[in-house]
Amino acid sequence: MNPNVKSIIDKAYEIKDDLIQTRRYIHKNAEVGYNTIKTSTYIKEKLKEIGVNFRDIDGTGIVADIGSGEKTVLLRADMDALPMYELNDLEFKSDIESSHCCGHDLHATMLLGAANILKEREDSLNGTVRLMFQPDEEGGTGAKRMLDKGVLDDKNISAALALHVDAKSPLGNLDYGYGKTFASNDSFEIIINGRGGHGARAYETIDPINVAINIYNSLCSLINREVDPFSHVLFSITSIEANSTFNIIPNSAKIKGTLRTYDDKQREYLLKRFETMTKGISQSFMANAEFKVDKSLPALTTSKEFTDKVLKLSQKLEDKININVEPVVKRGSEDFSYISEKIKDNAYLFIGAGKNSQEGYEFGQHNSNVIFNEEVLPIGSALLSTIAYLWLLEAES
């Protein structure tokens, strides 16, 4: 084993108890969105203990640098929780309607572990490691707001890496994106305005429910007839709201849905077609409609070349990880996509946090019963440290 990697792994296991304590504090004090005040304060206290300087960005975001020099790699960890109760029996579980059922408590802890390991090796770093602790990944705006506030502006960041735990994957299993990794996410809303009236005199009305049904059927047909089935477009109408009384035709109706794609051109084409079709159908029934995209995340496309380098460096951890042969494509969305748009050399890894090296847990992320194996903490800390340290060492000046 590479002596640098061996010393990194040894250090990761030396601080394992502290990593577990850190994770459990963040887990018990789960905070949602930008309200990660306790979490952010705790992380800054740990950075002070390690001797790492930091600065606040956009309230609860944190950025810190280890090392010096122009060549810089960014390591990003999200730290926000989900607005849901957890139903497991962990002694450190959150007792409020906020919980780390997506594993961001582990992400923040592993990045703190990497900070500890890399700070000890700062004199031999061949460049700079930038640490980014980010709020509101679940809300989809945290990364963009930190970018807008200048998290990258004072450095020429050469590469970026993010790591996510997976409770259903065996401990130490390493999955990775390779090109198309996460879908874009557009949540849209259609407001149809007609003319209400008595249910017995529908002929006097412009029925927005009838319009909504026709829009629903037409949008589904559009996907079936204008989209290549191998292009992985994910489209759903998730809500149709109107009147709740049996004898009144309402004045308006509302449709909500989501569109996910892996291609920016296709995304723009479909959103434009949705709007054109919605307004055209409404007008044909003498109603009018407003089409709004309420929340958007771009698709995450990782660098194949940089991912190859990351996987090659990851292999140096030998029996601590098991790299899967085939890359993964996720149907969900990730706001690391905003960072990938800014930094060409980027990679996204998924590390197994299951029962053991052979078996994952039954429940996955965003389930109230999810459990993560804390043995992943030193593995993830060592993985992040190894990739950053060796990539800087091997990268061309």
TrEMBL record:
<keyword id="KW-0479">Metal-binding</keyword>
<keyword id="KW-0464">Manganese</keyword>
<dbReference type="Pfam" id="PF07687">
    <property type="entry name" value="M20_dimer"/>
</dbReference>
<dbReference type="InterPro" id="IPR017439">
    <property type="entry name" value="Amidohydrolase"/>
</dbReference>
<feature type="binding site">
    <location>
        <position position="104"/>
    </location>
    <ligand>
        <name>Mn(2+)</name>
    </ligand>
</feature>
<protein>
    <submittedName>
        <fullName>Amidohydrolase</fullName>
    </submittedName>
</protein>
<feature type="binding site">
    <location>
        <position position="102"/>
    </location>
    <ligand>
        <name>Mn(2+)</name>
    </ligand>
</feature>
<feature type="binding site">
    <location>
        <position position="164"/>
    </location>
    <ligand>
        <name>Mn(2+)</name>
    </ligand>
</feature>
<feature type="binding site">
    <location>
        <position position="366"/>
    </location>
    <ligand>
        <name>Mn(2+)</name>
    </ligand>
</feature>
<dbReference type="InterPro" id="IPR036264">
    <property type="entry name" value="Bact_exopeptidase_dim_dom"/>
</dbReference>
<keyword id="KW-0378">Hydrolase</keyword>
<dbReference type="GO" id="GO:0046872">
    <property type="term" value="F:metal ion binding"/>
</dbReference>
<dbReference type="GO" id="GO:0016787">
    <property type="term" value="F:hydrolase activity"/>
</dbReference>
<feature type="binding site">
    <location>
        <position position="138"/>
    </location>
    <ligand>
        <name>Mn(2+)</name>
    </ligand>
</feature>
<dbReference type="InterPro" id="IPR002933">
    <property type="entry name" value="Peptidase_M20"/>
</dbReference>
<dbReference type="Pfam" id="PF01546">
    <property type="entry name" value="Peptidase_M20"/>
</dbReference>
<dbReference type="InterPro" id="IPR011650">
    <property type="entry name" value="Peptidase_M20_dimer"/>
</dbReference>
<feature type="domain" description="Peptidase M20 dimerisation">
    <location>
        <begin position="187"/>
        <end position="277"/>
    </location>
</feature>
